[in-house]
Amino acid sequence: MISSHEDTIAGIATAFGEAGVSIIRISGDLALPLAEKVFKAKSGDPLQQMRNRILTYGWIENEGHPLDEVLLCVMRKPHSFTAEDVVEIHCHGGVYLTQVILNLVLNAGARMANPGEFTQRAFLNGRIDLTQAEATNDLIQAKSLLELDLVINQLKGKLFRRISALKDQITWVLALVNADIDFPEEDQIFAHRDLIDAKLTTAASDLVTLIGSADTGIKIREGYKIVLTGKPNVGKSSILNGLLEESRAIVSQMPGTTRDTIEESCTIGGIPASLIDTAGIQPTTDAIEQEGISRALAAVEKADLILWVIDMINPSFENQLENRVDLSAIPTIIVLNKKDLYGTDPFTVPEFLTDQKCITISAILDKDMTRLRDEIYHQISGQGQKMAEETMLTNLRQKKSAETALIYLNNAKDSLDQGFGQELLAVDLSQTLQALGEIVGETTPDEMLEQIFSEFCIGK
Ligand SMILES: Nc1nc2c(ncn2[C@@H]2O[C@H](COP(=O)(O)OP(=O)(O)OP(=O)(O)O)[C@@H](O)[C@H]2O)c(=O)[nH]1
Ligand SMILES: [Mg+2]
To answer: Which residue has better confidence, 86 or 282?
Structure first.
C-alpha cells in the first residue's frame, strides 16, 4: 500500500556520517508548527512570519536548553519539492547530533519518513510524474556527465511530454471510436479512417523509436560492460590496471594469477563503463581454475564489448571463446599485447579474425592505453553520446510498458485494417493508454510504485 500522505514526515536528507552540515527535512501540514517547537530564531520571530526559501539563523532547543546553532528554511506549499509545507533544518553534521535533532522533531509529532517518501509525495501531489521521480533518484546515483545529461532531460519532463503527446494522439482516436459506438449512424471511423490510420502509424513508429532508445538509455545509466578475456598470462590484468590508471588487479608472470572476476567502474570518454577482468581460459583439471573459467565465460556472455587479449610473442588464435560462447552478437576488439617485446617482423592476424577490430598495444605504455581507450570509446559510443540529448527510456520498467503499449497499438491497427468492429478497437486503444500511463505513473499499480520508491534513499 502506498503510504498516506496526510501526516507530517521527517528524515535526514544528507548522507550518514560526520560532515560540516546535515539537513533534516520535514514535510506536511504540521511542518511549521512542529519546527516551531524545537527552533528559536535569533530575531525572536515566529516561523509563520518567515519568508519562503530564506535561511533564518537560530538555535535548536531541547526543553529550553540550546542544542545546536542552525539555519532553517521554510518552503510553503505548493512551492516546495513535495508541494507540501516543508521545513529544512541545516544543523552541524555530527552523526549523534543530527539524530538527536531528528528525534526532537519526531517527538514533537512528526513520523519518520520511509525511503523515497519525500519524492513519493511530490509524485502523489502531482508535482512530478513517475519518470521525473525516477530521474531524481538517478541524478543522485549518476556516475558520468553523459548520464547526467540524460537524467536532466528526464527531470525536466521531456520523456513525460513525449509520452503525453503519444497519449493525446491515442485519446483523440479513442474519442472518435467511442462516438461511433454511441452514435453508429454517424460512422466517425469511416469518415476519419485515413487520419486515424495516420495517427496510429505515427504513434507506433514513435513508440518503436522510444523502445529502441531504451537499451542505450539503460547502458548509459548502468554502464557498458567491457570484459577482458583470453588465455592466461596474455596481459589482461595489466590492461585493466592500465585503463584504470591504478594497480587494481594482481599482475604476475605466473599463468593463472587471476582466479575470480574483478569488476571496476570507470568512465571512458565520459561514458560510464564496468571493466571486468577474468581468469585466463585454458583446458584445466584444477577445480578452482575451472570455476574461474566458468565465471569468465558467464561474464563474456553478458558483455557489451569484449577485449580479446592475445600475446604477440606467444600468439594463440585457437578460437577458444567461440567454441563456448556465441561471439557473433557481441562487439569484440582483438587486443594484440606485448608489442614492446615483439620484433620488427610483420605480425599476421589469422584470416578468421581479419574482419574484427584489431589493435596492437603494450600494456606498459601509457600512450597505448590512451589509444585503446579511444578505440573502446569509438566502439561503445556509437550513437550514445548524441542520443543522450534526446528523449530516451532509461530503465526496464519503462521499456516493458512501452513494449506492451506497442503490442496493443499494433492490435488496434490490425482491428482497424481488418474492420473487426469498434468495440475491439476501443479495448486495444484503452489498453495502449493504460500501458503508456504506467510509464508516467498515471496507471501504475500501487505495488509497483511502492517497489520503485523503496529503492530510493532515506530522506529523498
Ligand atoms: N613487456 C610486457 N610485459 C607485459 C605486458 N603486458 C603484460 N605483461 C607481463 O605479462 C605477465 C602477465 O601479465 P598479467 O597482466 O598478469 O596477465 P593476465 O592475462 O592477467 O594473466 P592471468 O591472470 O594469469 O590470466 C606479467 O609479468 C606482466 O608484467 C606488456 O605489454 N609488455
Ligand atoms: Mg590476470
So the answer is: 86
Pinpoint the alpha helices (H) of 26-157.
31-38, 95-107, 117-124, 130-141, 145-155
What angle is formed at CA 145 by the lines to CA 143 and CA 150, rounded to 5 degrees? 95
SS3 call for 358 = strand
Cell of 448: 509497483
pLDDT band at 324 (very low <50, low <70, confident <90, very high): low
Contact between 44 and 77 under an 8 Å Cβ cutoff? The reply is: no
Pocket test for ligand 1, best of 227, 233, 258, 261 (most atoms within 8 A of CB): 233
The CA-atom distances, in angstroms, between 104 and each of 11, 37, 171, 337 are: 12, 9, 50, 62
User: Which atom of ligand 1 approaches the CA of 362 most closely?
Assistant: 31
Average pLDDT over residues 258-264: 95
Mean pLDDT of the chain: 91
Cα 14 to Cα 109, 115, 135, 137, 372: the distances in Å are: 21, 13, 18, 14, 39
- What percent of the chain is predicted at pLDDT more than 90? 70
Helix (H) or strand (E) segment spanning residue 89: strand 86-93
Q: Please tell me the distance between residue 3's alpha carbon and the centre of ligand 2 in angstroms.
A: 50
Show the domains of the chain with their CATH numbers: 9-127 (3.30.1360.120), 135-219+395-441 (1.20.120.430), 223-386 (3.40.50.300)
Query: Are the CB atoms for 129 and 119 separated by under 8 Å?
Result: no
280 lines ligand 1 (CB under 6 A): yes
- Give the separation between CA 116 and CA 460, rounded to whole angstroms: 5
pLDDT band at 328 (very low <50, low <70, confident <90, very high): confident
First to last CA, the chain: 19
Q: CB neighbours (10 Å) of residue 447?
A: 10
Q: Does residue 278 have its Cβ closer than 6 Å to ligand 1? A: no
Q: In sequence order, which residues have a C-beta less than 8 Å from that of residue 154 and are 6 or more positions away?
A: 131, 132, 134, 135, 138, 391, 394
Residue of minimum CA distance from atom 4 in ligand 1: 338
pLDDT tens for each residue of 110-149: 999 999 999 999 999 999 999 999 999 999 988 888 888 8
Among the bound ligands, the one closest to the CA of 292: 1
pTM of the model: 0.79
Instruction: Give the angle subtended at the CA of 271 by the CAs of 267 and 277, to the nearest 5°.
Output: 50
Q: In whole angstroms, give the CA distance from residue 393 to residue 231.
A: 38
CB 218 less than 6 A from any atom of ligand 1 = no
pLDDT of residue 188: 67
